[in-house]
Amino acid sequence: MIWPSFFSRNPAPEANPALPLIAPIGEAMAQTALQVDDARRVLAVLRDLAMRAEPVTLYPDDGGAPLCGRLVQVVEPDGRIVVHLRAPQPPAAGRALVVAAPEGLRLQFHADLAWQQQAGDLLAGRAPLPAGLLQLQRRRFTRQETPLGPALRAVFQAKGKRRVLTVDDLSMGGVGLRGPLAEHRDLAAGLRLERVRLELGSVVLMDLRLDVCSRRAYKSFLAGEQLHFGCEFVDLDEASQQTVQKVLARMGQGSGAFQDTAL
Description:
This is PilZ domain-containing protein. The protein is an alpha+beta fold.
């Protein structure tokens, strides 16, 4: 499937010299990393990074100093990525290792970048989409992205308000939740959520407790400003663990199996 280019054309935070230096996957760790060669999967991963203007570190093949910027765009159907960084002058064009560290992962791929001066000291580097990438899972539990279609959501009370957030991903360790920034800006990392109702298609888990471990803001072309909350299950009982395990198995079979099959 070819995704429309507008999905990755969100206004993005500008590159910042204070961005963190992200270390590449070491040779020993690379042996356990996943090589992603499927073009659709590579495109999906890069689109996700671009939608969040994810920080990246560039390691030039010529041995030059690492450069910190952001991956801000995936241009289709040209099949190119765009990286922004700030520097007094454009670096030399050429091949570089691009490393990103979105929550719970480490990603890297090679890109042949050509640079252009933008406004002020902002530089834009463009490169063809990579044929593949390395993906290192650093989570304790493997995360499964939720399928499109069924209404997967978490419902709970917090800060005196009823909350309804969409389930973005699920693992044996916890759940990723998403909702509008305007409605949930008062929720922060470190908060414990009580009596959460987790609706996963035909399956409903009641009275769960979740610890909000992370919070990040991003802008979606379709939904506007959003917040993503990484939440960890607290004292999940054995019956609920078995249910989550079965849900993950259904999700792994594809969205159709997940929607149509009761547990």
